[in-house]
Amino acid sequence: MKGWQIFAHSVRLVFSNLEQALRVSLVLYLVQVANQVAFFLNPPEMVEVGGMSYPEMSAGGTFQSLILGLLAVVASLWIAVAWHRFVLAEEYPQGWLPRWHGSNMLSYLGRSILVGLLITLAVLVVSVPLGLITMAAPGLAALLPILMVGLAAFLFFRLSVMLPAAALGHKMKLGEAWEETSGETDTILVLAAVVAGASILIQLPTMLNGDPGSFISLIYGLVVNWFATIIGISLLTTLYGHFIEKRPID
Looking at 67-81, 108-122, 123-137, which range is the least confident one? Predict the structure, then answer.
């Protein structure tokens, strides 16, 4: 099944180029997770509002979170563009920070927002008739979230080839992305199912842990999420390489 082949190829890309993956992403990933680590080391006070607990943030803490959040966005864009360019254009990092491609990163951000908005709109439109159906047949209500997530994943993988194109400085319109991935519905659905299954599998230890807020859970989460991040970017790289550049995946 091609969907599984795309996933396996993406994982192999990371493990066969592990040194380069670390050089491209390690320092930037530490920036990306700085806010999470800061919250763990200095957890905010919790306050009760209407029976719900919320973190009470000081002005300084809010400003710190905002700055770290912005840095995390920049770091994630930097990692994605660098890894796409390493695999697709053989742009090797020379040190522990990859080359800066500011215009490509801005284009990547813009297309990510565009794809996200389109997916959100599509899910909202489809959820209306499906919601009416579940009102008439309440037994189907449990399927609604699964269908919505499946639709979002399907649309994302169909349109996501625009993102590596942005990393390479190539202009690709929505219609082109949709056309290039046409006829691959089965492949995209299988890929979405594999990714969902893998995501659940790697989170199981944390979900089963008696203390998900422990230091061990934090370290496990940081390591696992690094692999998830770089493999996720590799998935988009593989989709672009296979569907746009016609590269083999076996």
Answer: 123-137
Paired strand residues for 53: 48
Nearest to 32 by CA among 78, 94, 1: 78
Q: Are 14 and 198 in contact (CB under 8 A)?
A: no
DSSP state of 141: T
Angstrom CA distances, 202 to 12, 34, 66, 172, 226, stand at 17, 22, 29, 33, 12
In the three-class reduction of DSSP (H, G, I as helix; E, B as strand; rest coil), residue 42 is classed as coil
Which of 59, 68, 85, 10 is CA-nearest to residue 34? 68
Residue 237 has which token pair? 């790289």
* Alpha-carbon gap, residue 20 to 94, rounded angstroms: 10
Q: What is the pTM of this model?
A: 0.89
Nearest Cα neighbor of 230 from 5, 26, 37, 34 is 26
Answer yes or no: are the C-beta atoms of 217 and 209 closer than 8 Å. Answer: yes
What's the pLDDT at 244? 94
Whose tokens are 């390489």? That residue is 241
- Rounded to the nearest 10°, the torsion over CA 26, 202, 123, 171 is 30
What distance in Å separates the CA atoms of residue 230 and residue 226, rounded to the nearest whole number?
6
**What is residue 51's predicted lDDT score, i.e. its pLDDT?**
61
Tell me the C-alpha distance between 250 and 247, whole Å: 10
- What is the band of 155 on the pLDDT scale with cuts at 50, 70, 90? very high
In which residue are the tokens 């370290």 written? 219
